Fold these 2 entries.
Entry 1:
Amino acid sequence: MNKRISLEILPLNFRHEKEFLMNSEFNTWFKLSKLEDTDINYILNRNPLCTESRLKKIRAISIFIFELKINPSQAYLLLHCGIASIKALSTIDAHIIEKRIGRLKRSLNIKNDETPSIIILKDWIKKAKNIMAR
């Protein structure tokens, strides 16, 4: 399994969910993007250390990865900036996302230059609008 579809890169705070998902039928980003609420309830019944909120975050991340064709760190960034769905992304302005990313980087004291450009953000929004139009 390559890094693009591997769940190995999930952060430490998802450790219980990652362990369960990697050993289940929901072991790829594609399968996670198709996760239903009934599947989440099934997972919660099978593993009480998993939480509903973290599983829903993982589902949102996987939808971003699969639908927008972005990498997991970019999907995490969108989620941490308060954008939790394709619909939410399709209705927001790229400059607002840019401001939120800047605020997040300042609050976490991050000094890297891996911030998506405004052009990339606009491309993600355009893809989200196309998905919503389907």
Entry 2:
Amino acid sequence: MLMKRKMSDGQFKAMQGLMKLIDTFYPYVKSRARSFGVQPGMTVVDYGCGPGRYTAEFAKLVGENGKVFAVDHIDIALRETKKRLDKTGAANVELKLAKGYDSGIPARRADIVCAIDMFHHVEPVQFLKETERIAKPDGVMIIAGGHMFRSRVKAFVAASGLWEVADENFHFLTYRRKLTK
């Protein structure tokens, strides 16, 4: 996952501190993670996992028979995610250091691919090709938050020809793989 500009460790720590502050005063991660439709036994990809806030929640939701892949392109993100997971005892998470846009996840593995507050950091075409590659035929992609207007996100995804909007609410977009004729 190539960011348009790679975040330094210092920038990552600052972002992580801000997230901790937000989570203290507005603890929405747990309820938001549940709203994505994650069920026991699923395989979920937290693409651009950052410090693992959602990864830890997904690990609880999929249960011991499910799997979570936490993917990021910077080492510090995976180290911080591992620290968080070590505290929870989650054994159903695999950390993946992306090489460019290659997540290292086998094709057609994910029930849900989540891109939470990170879409503004990627080059959309290559990122969307990778999410489509790793999603099961009936898999979905969730794009939530971020610092990009929703209309722009929708335009990038539509232009890819790979995904179509399945549902939309105030907090996130749900996409399904586009059926080919």
